[in-house]
User: Fold this.
Amino acid sequence: MPLNKFKNQLKSANVFAPVDTLGSFDFYNNLICLDSVDYQTFENMRNNHGAKIVSLEKGERIDSNLYYDLEKIVPLVVHEYTHFIDCTSTLWGLNHLSLMNSAYETCIEQREINFHYAKKFYDHVRTLRLPDYYTFKYEGDGSSRPWQWRASIGKLFSSDGQLTNRAVVFMRFSNSNGDDLVRSPLSMVSLLEATAMKHEIFSKLELLNHCDDKFRLVELASYKRSILDYLYNKEITEYSACVHCVANIHSIKDVIEAFSITSAIARLCLNMPKSLFGRIAESNSAYEAIGISGNEELVELFKASLNFFDRGILFYIIVHALPKSQEYTQASLESALKKTLEIFGITYAEYEENGNVEALTTAYFKDGKFHSLNLMAQAGFNNYALLNRFGFNTSYDKVELPEVYLGDCTSIRLFGCKDLPLNELTADDIFDELSIGNEWVKRFAEACL
Assistant:
């Protein structure tokens, strides 16, 4: 059964932490599994709440029973589909698809001179979540809140054990007593989880907005407590590092506001054109923003990281450069992000124009040998053209999305536009075709001494 193989592949990829049990995303094929949901769940939903769901779609109030059933599914679906959007429909995501395509085609062509593409993609996925070496957990009691926070800077190691000239930023946490808790790196997974969690949270808030006022206030207070529990879980601080970074630097007390700002910055970074990284690397304003402009060694580390297109490093710089505000609205945050680009000598028009050019060239797979990837790239480009660059106003019923696996080995299409090319593929179609390339990439990576 493809789903069983899918889950085995996820275990071997080891990108997300073992705490992920409700849903999963595979970076080797961009497929989703809602492990905690089965097909009968949706059948029960239709049978028990059919008319009420129609009322919800009309913007009318819903009762607590429907809310409790929906909140088990909708936020999870939105979270995982946000991973799909980030991995296909941002500039980083289109590059992810391009790397996958180049790697998997070597399996078909079998030209040894091109096998390096397989290793390049393998390393790309392997380092989305930095190896456990970069995370260090102490014995301190994480239940003592609020935590204290500070940043530190180190160097990454190369695959042959040598120190590189690239920086890694660590979030170092201690409890309210000053006891060390954990040191976590800012990685690509940190950015991807920040956007996914934001959209998950806002989807649940949208459900609450359709509930009775008294019920909503009680549930909202409870939900905010559960979000804080997530943020103060020292087992998954690499996931929450970006939000801690933003909340501390900008002195944000409201957890929902912190996620909103963090996600917008992360999406800005995911959509940063490669052609502009060098401009930021050469801008002294970037190093003034993080307070290292007088330290030549650190400047060179950050410059090398930016020239390597390190979006975690870019995120750290943008967070510091973003103007402080007592309270951002969506409009004022979007304006502030555009002004932040200008600090580095980049206009938003340049950001947009360079991005459009990169998206077009990256998504174009000439005579691609994998039908699934061709359609995924086409969908990714279409979604990129449709979506706001900072992730505002994302509507999942207007973009192209694939089927998802459910925990009972069935599959279903939940959101997304109908009658578009990606819809011709089932989850099994995608998995079966791309497994050939996936298995080849991992096999070849083992051969690299």
